[in-house]
Amino acid sequence: HALSQVLSSLLQRFLQKYGYLGALRHAPAGTARASPAFSCREFQRASHLAPSGRLDAPTLQQMGRPRCGTGDGHSQDAWARRGRRWKRYSPHGAKWHKRHLTYRVVNRPPYLPPRELRAAVRAAFELWSNVSALVFWEARDGAADIRLAFFHGDHNDGLSNAFDGPGGALAHAFFPRRGEAHFDSDERWSLRSGKGRNLFVVVAHEVGHTLGLEHSPVKSALMSPYYKKLSKDFVLSWDDVLAIQNLYGKPSKGSAIQLPGKVFTHFQDWSMDLSDGERQQRSLSAYYCHSFFDAITADADHNLYIFKGSRYWLVPASGNASDPQPLHSRWPGLPAALDAAAWSQLSGKFYFFKGGRCWRYKGSVLEAGFPQKCSAGGLPRHPDTALYFQQLRHLVLFKGAKYFVVSEESLHVEPYYPRSLRDWAGLPAGTAGALRHRDGFLYFFRDHQYWQFDQAKLQVVATGMWATELPWMGCWDANGGQVLF
Ligand SMILES: *[C@@H]1O[C@H](CO)[C@@H](O)[C@H](O)[C@H]1NC(C)=O
Ligand SMILES: *[C@@H]1O[C@H](CO)[C@@H](O)[C@H](O)[C@H]1NC(C)=O
């Protein structure tokens, strides 16, 4: 009973935050105007779920998905009329009265290289100017019509707009003519495919709000409240294009130009391009400590290998991390931005996974027949984490809510797998990597957190922040009282 009360107040807060409760002036005549069940049904309809009006499992799951923090309230009128003809509108017809607008990136997470960040933001604005009569200029300093900024937690936008750390609301923006978009600085942002939150698609979406666009009920729209995935489709759907042209007209020069979403997935392949100033400020070895990584593993001598982009760091048992090394210097032929890595105690070999393929190295030598299409053997594409698990004497791959036990010889999934992650009591889905430490525990990592797993009890026994609480991760700088961005 207590739990159901907690859940129902959680639902109420959620519906309020996103404008489903209290904004019911558009409710059809005869419906109970302030009824949470009605609001819940509206939210379910907008999220393409069965409109039960109750907090069922799919609804709870939907509430937990990362999304835009800007409310859906104003859009409901349009959404409620789905099935009839609906049109999108901007609240109070808010729009800019000029076609030439300036923008500025006010601050940035220190781990995002400035050049790539500027390129991504420019492309995000270009998406909209390429299909409308708008023109944008970057203002390097001074006043700008539209300002993009990263904030931590409560940042004076009202408590319901406070950022909530990784997941949940990732960003929000204001309608014209306030000209502000805010991004949660506690997310692990990325400007390439692979791990981390894709900043490009979030910037492009939030810029849409600053121009006056509401959330779209169309699932494939950039302006859908749940950020779209970049694929071979165009980033803007017909719905986005109609909405912006409705406010600002068609482009003056010829026809609208659109590129497939895949083009925008690799602004950044992290390289050594930190500026000299940044190099002095912060030792390079600690770079991964201030960010997130792609994969991690440990070998027989308890050396840690931490992978990010096209580099890796080696942290020996002493805890002093090496400088970042190019991946190919040790594992020739290995691609950048790995999904998962594991060192096997059984064979002494390194395994790497990316997409549907896998690589196996003995020392620095890629074994014959590799890379292999491992997805053909039933292995998941884009695994979250790989681990050699001594208890089973097998490799284990984790992907979402499932895990797969894999034979090292055949690289096929063993019978009766995959199974539910529930077997690993207390372990969250979507970890970035795992390793066995010399203390005998397994450690799993996700964003800035770790989970310590007892192999005998088969359960998580502790959790915390890895950069500051696990000295063997080599983050001396992070321990030195520096703020982790
Ligand atoms: C906008 O159009 C130009 C060509 O006019 C093209 O080069 C550019 O890549 C387009 N930008 C985006 C983000 O689609
Ligand atoms: C690690 O590096 C620090 C700073 O350079 C040094 O003081 C310390 O002695 C080193 N520790 C080991 C075990 O090498």
From TrEMBL:
Q: Which residues are noted in the entry as Ca(2+) 1-binding?
A: E187
Q: Which positions does UniProt annotate for Ca(2+) 4 binding?
A: D294, D339
Provide the binding site for Ca(2+) 2.
D145
Q: Metal-binding among the record's keywords?
A: yes
Keyword Secreted on entry: no
Which keywords does this chain's UniProt record carry? Calcium, Hydrolase, Metal-binding, Metalloprotease, Protease, Repeat, Zinc, Zymogen
The entry's Ca(2+) 3-binding residues are D164, G165, D184, E187
Tell me the residue numbers annotated for binding Zn(2+) 2.
C68, H205, H209, H215, M223
What Gene3D superfamilies does its record include? Collagenase (Catalytic Domain), Hemopexin-like domain
Q: Known Pfam families for this protein? A: Hemopexin (PF00045), Peptidase_M10 (PF00413)
Active-site residues? E206
Annotated Gene Ontology cellular component terms: extracellular matrix; extracellular space
Q: Where is this region: Disordered?
A: 54-79
What InterPro entries has UniProt attached to this entry? Hemopexin-like_dom, Hemopexin-like_dom_sf, Hemopexin-like_repeat, M10A_MMP, MetalloPept_cat_dom_sf, Pept_M10_metallopeptidase, Pept_M10A, Peptidase_Metallo
At the top level, the lineage of the source is Eukaryota
Peptidase metallopeptidase domain: residues covered: 92-250
Q: Where are the Hemopexin repeats?
A: 290-334, 335-381, 428-475
By sequence similarity, the record places it as follows: Belongs to the peptidase M10A family.
What the entry lists under PANTHER family is as follows: MATRIX METALLOPROTEINASE, MATRIX METALLOPROTEINASE-28
This chain belongs to which protein, by name? Matrix metallopeptidase 28
Question: What is this organism's lineage?
Answer: Eukaryota, Metazoa, Chordata, Craniata, Vertebrata
Q: What is this protein's gene name?
A: MMP28
